[in-house]
Amino acid sequence: MSTKTGPQRYPGASRANWYQDDFGGDPMQVNVVVLHTTEGPTLPGYGGGSSAPNLTAVPDLAHKKLKWYQHFDIETSSRALVNLRGGVDTNTMNVCQVELVGTCDPKTHGKWKAAGQAHVYWPDAPDWALHGVARFLSWMHEEHGVPLSGPKSWPTYPTSYANGGGQRMTAAKWTGFKGVCGHMHVPENVHGDPGAIDFARIIKYAKADLDLGDDTPETTTPAKPKVPAFPGRKYFVAGASNAYVLQLGKQLVKRGFGDHYKVGPSRAWGEADRLNVRDFQKSRKELRGDADGNPGPLTWRLLFS
């Protein structure tokens, strides 16, 4: 059984519509975010929670911000995807699901607009709404290591329905996928949401939020060094062995915080790593209050900046 790591509640999200106590769910270590659109103008009831995602983002049009509702822990399987018996895992694999209130259907958009129904048409969403989605993705990137990348093809609805745009992943590709995708990319599902949402702009905003930069060459001034993305807390726990532990150890040595190594850093997380991280944390006023030796996103960013 998978073990949850990192924070399970998105900061500021309401739990007024919490369904995990009624529907449970499987623990999993998330490395995928799936974006949906509700195709309705208000917070859905989700059948009392039987078809709910992990979170719903409701546009507050008056204040130009997203109001977030959380229904399940970040790393508890939710219920918004079709999961066929005997097929590939969808809800229960490694997925945090987000519903965006509004529509991706140009016909629905036209009907609501004619009726004076205020809403967000996500293929032409205002900047503040895209920034709101981007901030969630940047948080997921820092706290859970979800890559800020995804499919290149985000076809317009209704072309996207039933894989009309050829965008849906095969079972093998889905099983190996890490990053951000839409409902329309998930196998066993025919829905076409969120349509032609401006995914490239959302990712650009998420990277800017983390000061990661992008891959565009700088032509006027030299690009400042990039801070490598924090991979997530789950890579720095007892028994962990991976390239991120070695990367962290080498940077600790480079910054003069390698005193507890006997032979130098390695891929295996150990007490020497924790003590060296603690020494670094004690050296920074921003981290002294929580100098436990366990690297989080702020420790990582300060160490590599």
From TrEMBL:
Task: Name the SUPFAM superfamilies for this protein.
Answer: PGBD-like
Question: Superkingdom, according to UniProt?
Answer: Bacteria
- InterPro entries per UniProt: PG_bind_dom_phiBT1-type, PGBD-like_sf, PGBDSf
Q: What is this protein called?
A: N-acetylmuramoyl-L-alanine amidase
